[in-house]
Structures are given as structure tokens and as C-alpha cells.
Amino acid sequence: MKELDPITLAVIQNGLIQVCNEMDLAFVRSAFSPVISEALDRSDGIYAADTGELIAQGELGLPIFVGTMQFSTQAVIERAKDVKPGDIFIVNDPYLGGTHLMDVKFVRPFFYKGKLWSWLANTGHWPDLGGSVPGGFSANATEVEQEGLRLPPVKLFKEGVLDEEILSIILSNIRIADQRIGDIKAQAAALSIGEQRLTDLLDRYGEDVVSQSIKELKARASEQMRSKIADIPDGDYHGVAYVDSDGVVDEPLKIDMKVTSKGGELHFDMSGSSDPCMGPMNSVIATTKSSIYLAIKHIFPEVPINAGTFEPLKITDPEGTFLYAKYPRPVSGCAAEVSQRIAEAVFNALVDVMPELLFAAPAGTSGNLAVGGYDPERDKAYVMYVISGGGYGGYQGGDGLSNGCSTIGISKTTPIEVMEQYYPVLFEEYSLHEGSGGAGEYRGGFGVNYKIRLRRGQARASMVMDHGRYGPLGALGGKDGGLNTVLVHADGKDYIPPHLSKDQDIQIEVGDSISVSTPGGGGFGSAFKRDPDQVAEDVMRGYYSAGQAEERFGVLLDETGQVLRSETEKRRAKA
User: Fold this and answer.
1) φ, ψ dihedrals at 165, nearest 5°
2) 124 closest CA partner among 22, 25, 36, 30
3) Cα(309)–Cα(218) distance, rounded to whole angstroms?
4) Residues forming a β-bridge with 374
5) Would you say the pTM of this structure is higher than 0.85?
């Protein structure tokens, strides 16, 4: 076989990514649930026929699914029997390469000229999978069965035909079942689009050329990642991050991250982390590993994504800790919350040695809020799922972004106009969480405030968030970002969850409200190195009060907002 030329290799690489991008777009455009169609909580990819290794993932997919879909595809391969064209397996078992139960995977064998050539897979966040509370985020769960219906790999479609018996079992165990068939067909249709486009690619360039390109792209990704890692001086580095609590026991959980750089490889040891916990903040190993993958991809974004990207990353299984969950440990918080703390611990470990590529901690929570109830005006049940943005950390040369998406995804908040149209709620506020950016030479970005009020019927609210006790970490002398807060006003009284960021089954009636403020990013570098004129501009814009400018940055302002130069110098010198 002749050697591949660079142009052909680049064309094949982008062609494979485009197949996944089209799957993503088909899924989004035909899905019924706003969490998929508007918030973009989904992903699509192509995986190797024999190993299940990642070949390509869409640019529009959530980064956390990069690793987990590889593991779930491998679980399907191990259990698949008598596979035929048109079969689609459904799986959401967290312990078989998953995340939480609401992330439902579809895996389809792809045949080319009668031979199993690869697997196509996608993940979509279903708004409900049963369990004790609407939306699945059971903050007080002590076993996985309380979180919803757990599905091992089973054929939901057999040779292109939907199995009505399996479907009836699923729909009989989840809320708003009548609305799920639209998402199921959308998810399956995305894989059909992938089959068509991948067939076209193989027809055009030939099976041998595409297969050779995939092998070469994997080798080059591994080589490129090793070359990036080689810039990190050999040595041992240490970082920590904390989860507020597990939702059941009100004590923090520690992620103890030891990173060793050696010979173009990074070794990760988390054995010093907290023991398995009672509540739903345990992380399955697929999510734990994927969190490290995405953290390193944040640091080296130019390295392409495929199985070769992960080869130089050597992860010791953290057995005996809450980062290696085994049945029946509850796990609903692992993908959206614990994963971000794991990434934060990696950033914290490496920021001192590579400050030019890293940053202070971002908000680090998806802000999962689920409100489920019955809308009497529409005569139907509903589950509303809200995710929200927060501040990014400051970095060398710039301030953090405000209201950015989470560390582990590119998902976005569903437009409030859409949520008000779908659900019996009114958003009374959506604003910047002023003062939440961590102080630093380069300050953190700001979180958001929002307030929803129930307009009709009755509902139950549950939430699994984080950074309510500890703000996102500052770096190189920067201060931590602001905290996540939740306030429920019900029956004429204010209620703050005992665990600050986690609670479930909060009963709300017409007129009751829920107010949430998301965290700001950490600051980067000493706040006293920040240009006083920039601080004055932040105050003028309402980002900080004059009192916060003095307290956090040592900058004193007069009544007109002008910097009092001599007083500021004295204040900073004294501090």
C-alpha cells in the first residue's frame, strides 16, 4: 500500500469529523426535549469495530463523552451477539462505561460491503429515567436504583425495527413517557445519517485508504500528545479539589491528584482521595478517566481527538475511593459535578509549572436543577431541566469569561423564552452574579443569577450542584471565585438547602420561587498587581462595589469613581 500524502490524510480526518458533525446536527434538529435540542446535551462518534476505540467525535459534542462513549461501546462489543445491520443497542448502565443514568447511549454496528467495519454511537441526556425524583438528580440517593431505570446493552432496534416490548418496559418506568418516543427516533435517525455519510466517504476514497488514514491519525495524535507532554519538566506535581458534600453526609469529599511527568507520558494517581460515599457523588471509572482526558485536552486543545490522544495518559484505577464507583453506589452527580472537580484538580496540579497554558479554576458546576410536576392548563406532566453557566478563571494575559459553559461540555442554558413556553414557570430574573469573579491580576469571570416562579399547579424541585461551600480555586496568588447559592421561597418562608448546593423533593406551589446564583471563576495572580484603572472600570460597570474594590484589590475610589492614587499605594503597601 502506497504512503498517504498529507492532503489525503487531512481530507479523511475532516471527512470523519464531518460525519459526526452531521449526526450531531440531525440529532439536535429532530429531538423533542429542550435539553437536547436547545441545551445541546448530546454527542456522536465513530468507534473501531474490534476494540471500540474512538476514531472520531463531532466538534459539537460534549467533551465528557469523549472517553465514556468509548468505554460504553466496548461494553456493547463484549456483550453483543448475532449483530446485524440496522441493530441499535441502548445502554445507560453507569458501571458499563457510562455516566449518570440520564445519559442514554445508542450504539449501532456499521457494516460496509457485508463486513462489520466500525460502530456508530451517540449519547443524549433524557430529561427523566424514573427514580425517586423528577429529572433523576436524587441528591439524597443511597443506591443507584433510586436514581432511575438502569439498562444493560440490549437491542432496542432489531434490523431497523423498533422492539415494542423493550420500548414498553422503558416507557412504563419513566415519567413523561409520551414525549420520549420523539427523542428515541431522533437519536436513532442520527445514527442512520452517520451510516449514510460514512458509506459515502468509504465509497469515494476506498476502504483501504480510509483504514490506513485512521491508523495513521491515531499514531500521529499519540505522537503529538507526547511531544506536548515533553514540554512539562519531568517530576511529581500535586493538586486538590473538593466536592461540597455527597448530598447525604454533610462533609466535603477530597480529590487528591498526583501527576507525574516522565518521558513524554503523564501518570495520574488519585489513591489519596476520599472513600466511597453514601450519596450520589460517586464517580464511575469511565467518567473519572474521561475527566482527565478532557482536562488535558483543555491544556493542549490543538491535539486532535481519537484513541491515540489518550495513549500517553496513564491512569491508575483509584479503587477504594469515591472515584471508582461500583454497584450499587449512586452516581447521578458524577458526570456533571465530580468530573469537573477532577479536571479542576488536574489544573491545580499543573498550573504552577505551566502558567502560560493554564488558568484559575472555572465555575465547575453544571447547576443541575430539575422541576417536575403537572400543568393543569395543558393537562400534562412535565420535567424541566435547567443547566446554567458560570465564570471562567482568569489566565495569564486576560480576565475570565462570564457566564461560560461548564468545563465538561459545550452545552448551554436553554433560552428562558423556550422554557417559559414549554413549562408553567416565569423567569423573574436573569442577571450577572456581580462580585463573584475571584480577585487577581486577571480576575475571574462572573456567574449568573436567575429566579423562577411557579405559575400553575404543583411541582417538586431537586438539585445537584457544587461549589456552594468552596469557591473555584484561584491560581498563583489569585483569590477563589464566588460561591453557588440556592434560595427557595415557599409557603411564605425562605429555605436554604442544608447541603447548600444539593437537595431533593422540595415541594413548591403557585407563587413559590427558586433563586440560584452560580459561581464565578478564580482569580489569576495577585490582586494587588491589577491595574487600578481596570479595577475602577469594573466598579463603573457594576461588576464590583467600591467596598469590594478596596477589600479585594486594595484600590480606593473617590465619590466619582476615580482612583485615589496615593491612598491606593498606601493601602497596597500596608497589605
Assistant:
1) -70, -45
2) 36
3) 7
4) 381, 458
5) yes
